[in-house]
Structures are given as C-alpha cells and as structure tokens.
Amino acid sequence: MSAPARPSFALSDQARSRLDVASRSLAAVPGGYLLANLFVPAFARIVPMAPRDAEQLALMLSFVVFALAVILAFATKTAARAWAWVLGLSALCALILCFVPGAMA
Question: For the whole prediction, is pTM greater than 0.85?
Fold first, then answer.
C-alpha cells in the first residue's frame, strides 16, 4: 500500500512574483508607518535638546524615515530581508522607548 498522493501547491513564477511584491508593499507602507511612528518618541528621548524642539525635529525626520523604509523594502534582495530590516528597526525604537527614561506624553 502506498501513501495517498498529496496535491501539489507549487506556485507559478508569476504568482510568486506577485506575492513578493505584495509582501514588500506591506513591509513598506504599514511597516514603514510603524517605524516612523516609533521613531518620533524614541528620537525625541535620545537627542539632547529641549523637549519641544526634539519632538519637532523628530516629526520632521519621520518623513525621511518613512521614505527610507519604503526604499529599503524594495531595495533588499528578498522580502524576508525587507521585513527583517523594518521590524528590527521598529524593535530598536521600541526598546529605546522602554529603557531610556524620558518625559511621558
């Protein structure tokens, strides 16, 4: 008796390419948005400026961070690396928020 045949779920090259672009797009837009929003309070806590000035500078730089996250998501070799970069940098910002003392908003 042989084992029952399992259906093959192999993706075509076109479907694999579309999934790759979809994954990179998700890493770029929502992932970049997450990174930019975590960047603002993290940067404001570590920069040695007046709190109001630090927040304004961090907010202005967050647009650059978001743009760089989008570029990074499509410049990496694989979608997994794009996710690793975006989530890794987001985790770094979250760690700064957790462990660096600062004013609570």
Answer: no
